[in-house]
Specification:
about 300 residues, alpha/beta, Rossmann fold, 2 domains, 6-stranded parallel beta sheet, 3-stranded parallel beta sheet, about 40% helix
């Protein structure tokens, strides 16, 4: 066997499959925990995964896997990684994807897919995963060439964790995972010309906000999960005290503002306290920093 390898002129590292390249990319991204449920089209990934020391959480259903990954992302601040098979395995993830989208949780989800040669033929356990998950993800992509795997994965983690966090789905046809890919053919550079983040505040908009607060008779701050994601709780408290502003929290924003001080109106909306709704009815200027605001 060694002699044959020399004749071919390729080392074992050079002849790694797409599945092995996927695992190497996960290692490069610092992934430690994976949530998933095996199935036919992702068995090459699990074969490669078996040889590495990831902690794999085996769910009993794909929906359980993605909700567990949400909890991991919420607590750790790291992107939750999920693996599911094609067809029904992928569609079982939709509720979790939408939940993560609304809650601004970073997830990177890998779904199996039938081979590229039979996509569009109603093959066994084929589903239009890209079409189904487009409204429920921040970004989704189907890898059509094995050499694009490292770049697709790097872009997925970048998009999921920057700006407003959210779920990203990478659809992997089975032949992409089994194809041999040479090291020299790999491309892990980011190519996202349409994804440009702007972290600089618009000073003109800040001035308009300041004028609106000064002129409002009954201003109100609605603080949501954006405050927590930005780690801006102290700034919000300073802002509220400086302008003597009442603050209410959305459900996902609880904990972003102390509930025991005089400026706090706690949690209103359809499942909150009735007395907390009155500030909404009487406010003349609402300053919203919410993500996924629930209104009564």
């Amino acid at each position: 066997m060694k002699a044959e390898a020399k004749v071919e002129g390729k080392t074992d590292a050079e002849k790694r499959t797409g599945a092995h390249r996927l695992i190497q990319s996960l290692i490069n991204e610092g992934v430690e925990v994976i949530f998933g449920y095996p199935g036919g089209s992702v068995l090459p990934i699990y074969d490669a995964l078996y040889k590495h020391k990831f902690r794999h959480i085996l769910a009993r259903h794909e929906q359980g896997a993605i909700h567990a990954a949400e909890g991991y992302a919420r607590i750790s601040g790291k992107p939750g990684v999920v693996i599911a098979t094609s067809g029904p395995g992928a569609t079982n993830l939709v509720t979790g994807l939408m939940d993560a989208m609304i809650d601004s949780l970073p997830l990177v989800v890998f779904t199996g897919q039938v081979a590229t040669s039979v996509i569009g033929t109603d093959a066994f356990q084929e589903a239009d995963v890209i079409g189904v998950t487009a409204p429920a993800t921040k970004y989704n992509v189907q890898v059509r060439h094995p050499e694009d795997l490292p770049r697709a994965i790097k872009e997925a983690f970048h998009i999921a964790t920057t700006g407003r966090p959210g779920p990203v789905l990478v659809d992997l046809p089975k032949n992409i995972c089994t194809a041999e890919v040479e090291e020299a053919a790999m491309d892990a550079s980011l190519r996202l010309p349409g994804y440009q983040l702007n972290f600089s505040p618009d000073l003109e908009q800040v001035k308009k906000l300041e004028r609106a607060v000064e002129q409002a008779r009954k201003p109100l701050v609605i603080a949501g999960a954006g405050v927590l994601h930005a780690k801006a709780s102290d700034l919000l408290l300073t802002f509220a005290e400086r302008h003597n502003l009442p603050v209410v929290n959305t459900l996902l924003g609880l904990g972003s503002f102390p509930a025991v001080i005089r400026f706090s109106s706690a949690w209103p909306a359809c499942m909150g306290h009735m007395q907390r709704i009155w500030p909404f009815r009487n406010a003349t200027c609402s300053l919203t920093s919410a993500r996924g605001l629930m209104t009564a």
